[in-house]
Amino acid sequence: MSAQATQRTAAQLIVQALEAEGVEYVFGIPGEENIHFVDALNDSSIRYVLVRHEQGAAFMAEIYGRLTGKAGVASATLGPGAINLQLGVADATTNSTPVVAITAQVGLDRIYKESHQVVDLVSLFRPIRSGRSWRRRRRRCPS
Fold first, then answer.
1. Paired sense of beta strands 99-103 and 47-50, if any
2. Residue 123: is its pLDDT beyond 50?
3. Which of 2, 88, 89, 107 has the greatest CB tally within 10 Å of its CB?
4. Cα 7 to the chain's mean position, in Å?
């Protein structure tokens, strides 16, 4: 098998990690920036639950976490979509409920060119989270 055939995308690696943690559902809204993630979910055992608003995704993930004791997962697109997750994530934090929020971010080549979509999500979520991560180096992880 060639190296090209075995190389996985960032979306596939994230989904593989979620499957390894026993995630059964991801609540969210697909968009241009997270469509590869949603597509990778379709090829997995994880069910993608389409919601009408990102805030609903965050609250659904919180309730799932509260009822099962397992982390509920919510996903959103970039900028305003990611901001809409905040209320549900904050509620989960104050209730000590396990929730994972996965958001998209514009590519580094687009940062500051489309300012309405660029949000410093790490800073925005800092007061209401217990952990955070932002991958800045694309070369280390295939799209």
1. unpaired
2. yes
3. 88
4. 21
Q: What's the pLDDT score for residue 135?
A: 53
Pick from 38, 99, 110: which is nearest to 68 by CA? 99
Instruction: Give CA–CA dist 43/114, Å, rounded.
Output: 32
Give the count of beta carbons closer than 10 Å to the beta carbon of residue 125: 21
Note every long-range contact of 48-51, with CB atoms under 8 Å and residues 24 or more positions apart, other chains counting: 49/25, 51/27
Quote the CA–CA distance of 67 and 51 in Å, as a whole number.
19
Distance CA(46)–CA(113), nearest Å, equals 35
Q: Provide the CA 12 distance to its chain's centre, in angstroms.
A: 13
